Amino acid sequence: MRLLPLSSPDDPRIAVYRNVRERDLVGREGMFLAEGEVVVRVLLTKGRFRAESLLLEERRVAALEDVLAQHPDLPVYVAPQAVMNEIAGFPIHRGILAAGLRGEEPSPDELLASLDGPATVVALEGIANHDNVGGIFRNAAAFGARAVLLDGTSCDPLYRKAIRVSVGAALRVPFARATSSAEMIASLRRAGFTLLALTPRREAKPLETFSFPERTALLLGAEGPGLVDETLAAADELVRIDIESDFDSLNVAAASAVALHAARTRA
Predict the structure, then answer these.
(1) Boundaries of domain holding 50
(2) Is the domain of 54 the same as that of 122?
(3) In this predicted model, what pLDDT tens digit does every residue of 208-227 receive, in sequence order?
(4) Residue 122: phi, psi to the nearest 5?
(5) Together in a domain, 125 and 16
(6) What value, to the nearest 5°, has the Cα angle with vertex 230 and ends 225 and 233?
(7) Which DSSP string corresponds to 52-72?
(8) What does the pLDDT look like over 119-154, one tens digit per residue?
(9) Which residue has the higher pLDDT, 41 or 248?
(10) Are residues 255 and 149 in the same domain?
């Protein structure tokens, strides 16, 4: 392991970690941050992205010794808790951060063309809440969805909080971003996917009665407005999850779990 002790928060080598929350808002020029032991383990062992460095509170090194031994050339910066707090800009109790390289993202057509045979994918429209996007990626990994597509208004899956909520699934599940819902739908059509729009509308088919095609795209919209009318009109089927009649709807991440489980068990 390349353990590199830090004594000052101003060390230029750890600029990517400085003022974490503020940098979350403006981006890191082709990089992202992963936080916490579970997520960093995914990045180093199962993720699709390459880690550039780690920043660890000095007492956290032992927790990652086994995976760090597999990356002998990876720079691992080590700091006391007080110095790490100054670098991050807040008390960072997990004490484990990693900087990863985003690399080139595939286009929706390129990603879908790589999916041979039966496949379930998730397509997100207007989902700007990082907790929901992280939860959907976690469900996608758990239930075997092979990819996630996002329209131009959905939030970044590599935002630090989205990665954390996904428990690292955003680093594992392939994704691609379209400029619009229309572009996303066109790419799915070209790749031979049947489009299922999840909606609470009563005219939609109950999920429990539905048999899933071999290549299925689950379309999910933001909580409240849901999918726009143009997307609903473009779908092959409208599908709803039956809930109590006096209750409005499920959280979109929870709805994704129900639908992905159904697709997995009834494909």
Answers:
(1) 2-101
(2) no
(3) 888 899 999 999 999 888 99
(4) -115, 135
(5) no
(6) 110
(7) EEEEEEGGGGGGGHHHHTT-T
(8) 999 999 999 999 999 999 999 999 999 999 999 999
(9) 41
(10) yes
